[in-house]
Design a protein that fits this description.
About 50% of the residues lie in helices and about 15% in strands. It has about 375 residues and is of the alpha+beta class. The chain is globular, with a radius of gyration of 24 Å. The C terminus is likely disordered.
Length: about 375
């Protein structure tokens, strides 16, 4: 696989190995894996980053280097890195603040095996009894012309370069969003509408969806109370339950005081939908789907997949009844226009910028205390 960032990887290899760089690239499975995982580096902020698995590699190889094993010594005798230190280090890295433990424990290994099924080695070694971790040294060494070369420092350099490229892309995105506030109304509407296209990154889509729906519901009121003579009026408020792609139990947004749940998704895989429904004990949920297909078509796809997997109609009906509403891109754009008609265009743009800074851990004159977040499930 060759992509824009491959040039940077080859440049790093050439700086370290000179004329042997092409051979190192072709002989090393771990270098090839990094090449696969960094293809989004030069595609801008709208393309998904791959930090979890890369950082699992990074912290273990960083530990390997810190102990001097890249220069010599018997790594097989090393007692292993402590999980808590690795986990804390992951979260210190750019974009790593909300990473979970899945990559270190199994996901990175599973994905590596998917790409390299005939490779004899798995990257991350773990002792469940001691909760200690090692990076498979067999993948850190490559033998060319009878001489062994250690790749540890090169792996760190490649991942660092990828992170810098993504940081640059996110900073440009945020600055572009900020500069767009000076656009005329029609151009700003066009800009925001372009952020919910099917091709945009899932995180950007979730941020923009939230910002639109927050102000779409903003002026809608309900009347409620526990006693008939003490009815109160409340406007609907939408809250994010955490960052995008977080391990939050399948809830992306929560609406008060109705208690509606919203889940943003880019797939029409029935397993994903029903898993989200199961996570919240079959509580009704609204799906915001990154698709331009009509709601009847999307529902029909989900229904047909469900009927293929479940032979009992009552089970299928029970799950389908839990889908309270489907909001596709056309509906989202309609609600955007309604919010604009209520003069919330600038508020929506401000919210997109604010949420983007939180999501991308962007350091600026931004006060995180301004961020409204409801942590429903940690």
């Amino acid at each position: 696989m060759e992509h824009e960032f491959t040039k940077k990887i080859r440049s790093i290899l050439e700086a370290n190995f000179g004329g042997l760089s092409d051979k190192v690239f072709s002989e090393s499975h771990i270098i090839q894996y990094l090449n696969i995982k960094t293809k989004s580096a030069n595609k801008g902020s709208k393309s998904r980053g791959s930090f979890a698995n890369l950082y699992a590699i990074y912290v273990l190889v960083e530990d390997y280097i810190s102990k001097g094993f890249h220069q010599g010594g018997d790594y097989s005798e090393y007692e292993g890195a402590v999980f808590t230190k690795l986990f804390r280090r992951q979260r210190e890295l750019p974009f790593g603040q909300k990473l979970q433990n899945h990559a270190l424990n199994h996901r990175m290994n599973e994905e590596f095996k998917k790409y390299f099924p005939v490779c004899d080695y798995i990257p991350i070694l773990r002792s469940p009894e001691t909760n200690r971790y090692w990076f498979n040294e067999n993948l850190l060494k490559v033998k060319i012309n009878g001489k062994e070369h250690n790749l540890a420092e090169v792996l760190i350099q490649i991942i660092d370069s990828y992170v810098e490229a993504k940081k640059s892309a996110f900073e440009k995105f945020i600055r572009f969003c900020e500069s767009s506030q000076s656009l005329n109304k029609e151009d700003l509407i066009t800009f925001i509408a372009g952020l919910v296209e099917p091709t945009v990154d899932a995180r950007v889509f979730e941020i923009v969806s939230y910002s639109i729906l927050k102000y779409y519901y903003h002026n809608q009121n309900i009347y409620w109370g526990f006693e008939i003579d003490k009815i109160r009026e409340d406007n609907l408020k939408l809250f994010k339950t955490g960052r995008t792609n977080a391990n939050d139990g399948g809830i992306d947004f929560v609406m008060k005081p109705l208690g509606r749940f919203f889940q943003v998704t880019e797939t029409v895989d029935v397993n994903k939908y029903f898993l989200d429904i199961d996570k919240i004990e079959k509580y009704p949920i609204t799906f915001v789907i990154k698709s331009s297909e009509s709601v009847p078509i999307l529902k029909d796809k989900i229904q047909k997949q469900a009927e293929e997997q479940y032979s009992v109609k009552k089970i299928v009906s029970r799950y389908m009844a839990c889908i309270e509403e489907i909001i596709n891109i056309p509906i989202l754009l309609d609600r955007f226009r309604e919010a604009v008609n209520q003069n919330y265009l600038e508020d929506i743009m401000t919210e997109i910028i604010r949420q983007s800074k939180v999501e991308f851990s962007y350091e600026d004159d931004y006060d995180i205390s301004d961020y409204e977040e409801v942590n429903v499930i940690e």
